[in-house]
Amino acid sequence: MAKRRLLLLFMIIGLVSASCGQVNQTQASTFKGKQAIHFVKEAFQTQVSLSEQPQSLEAVNKQLQTFFTEELSDSFIEENVVKVENGYQTFGSDFAPHYIPFFKYDESTQVEFADGKWYIWEQRSGEEEGPIKTEPGVEVVVLSKEKGDWKVSSITNELPKNVQSNHE
Question: So which residues are the signal peptide here (predicted)?
């Protein structure tokens, strides 16, 4: 009797484990371009929110690591987060490193999945748009998997040739 119960317990654990694995696989495969763009928007809003009020360094780190790889979070904190009287916060700047670019999030925002990563980018003409002046070229945000979750892994001005050739 005890052997049957033990066998039944193992079968249930196996079925539950298999179904959880299937759910995770399905969730990963359903992450599409619109979700990648939305994720980048949320990551940008998180960065901007860090200037609103001082908070603990642990709280800053926790917010960033929801959207950014550990390496990029650490670089962002090192370059942009400063100690103030009641904690830590960022101060606005047009040239602060490791910030998500000011994307329009319209038809000019392009997205493609290639080589296991999501690339979200906009081509810049170099014209002044209100208070923001951009350099000509491309601004790219790269999403990669880290411990099973999509994270911003890089912000760059280079688009891989295989992605670029698909959009010329």
Answer: 1-21
Contact 37, 68 (CB under 8 A): no
Number of domains in the chain: 1
Contact indicator for 90, 51 with CB cutoff of 8 Å: yes
Q: CB atoms < 10 A from the CB of 153, how many?
A: 19
- Give domain status of residue 153, yes or no: yes
148 — phi, psi (to 5°)?
85, -5
Closest CA to 52 of 23, 85, 18, 92: 92
CATH, residue 84: 3.10.450
pTM: 0.78
Residue 75 placed within a domain: yes
Q: Position 163: which residue type?
A: V
